[in-house]
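Fold it.
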Amino acid sequence: MKQSKSLQTGFTLIELMIAMLLGAFLIGGVMQIFIGSRQTYRMQENLSRLQENGRFVMDFITRDNRMMGFQGCASRSTIPNIIVDPKNPNPNPAAATLAGGLSTPLIGSNNVVNNWSAGACGAANDCVAGTDAITYHFGASCGGYLTGNMGTNNANIQISAANTCNINMYDVLMLSDCSATDIFIATSASSGGIQTIPHANNQNTTNNLSKLYGSDAEVLAFRSYSFFIRNNASGEPGLWRLDNAKPASATNPIELVEGVENMQILYGADTDTTPDGTANYYVPAGTAGLNMSQVVSIRISVLVRSMNDGLAAQPLDYIYNGATVTPTDRRIRRVFTSTIALRNRLP
């Protein structure tokens, strides 16, 4: 009796097509899971970075603006004596541009144009039009206490070697105690041991200070900064800071936080006959009737966007500065708002 043999010679065309179809479904499912996971990861990463950038923006602005108007021990009512000569020929631009000193320690700029400041916006006029900018002055403590009482009001100032002021010729400085403040230019600065700082009239309007300062007085480094929104070399907007006391250069201004599209600032004025340190209203800079010397707090709102596009299925509307905006991209955006008390303006 013959035994029949069944030989397996391969798959039929139908079997191959079914296997390929099942394989395609499996691969498609795996790809869908991969793409979904990747998109979720991109979304979470951009949200985290966006939140982080928002916190950095508020930290930078809050920390620096709280120093606005600081004069050491001098009270908020002290008006500084400014002897800086705005026409002096030295290479430090602070001497000419900051001659107003702490008499105008807070300057607001509302809805700037793209070239509102040559130093801030650069030759390409990269500032973002329609955003706000803020400039403020203060004295930075650096341990520069006088070694003894001054004999005359035109005597050279001598401070202890144990300081971090890093004072150089043509620096704008502040000398302050609890009753008076003088702002002047250092016409030279010795190095090593006790540091001697002259304030001659070749850079100042006079070499006479307003009083004879004693060992309780402190030399502070004069600081002036501007915050504003500018595009970087890649065309991405961000928060920038300009050091007004230094020449514009490759490192001045600097970009602090990227992805910041807009900044709007309101100024809270205390208009009470007897100031109580509480703002009666908030308005933009340049509003009729706003006296910047009465501003006791500022309310800052920034619009921050994700660094990557294509995160949302369609453009996401957002509300900023009272208006609903439909963007042309598919980024995600968040608004961060903070009210900052200007501690040197409070009772």
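The CA atoms of residues 68 and 295 lie 11 Å apart.
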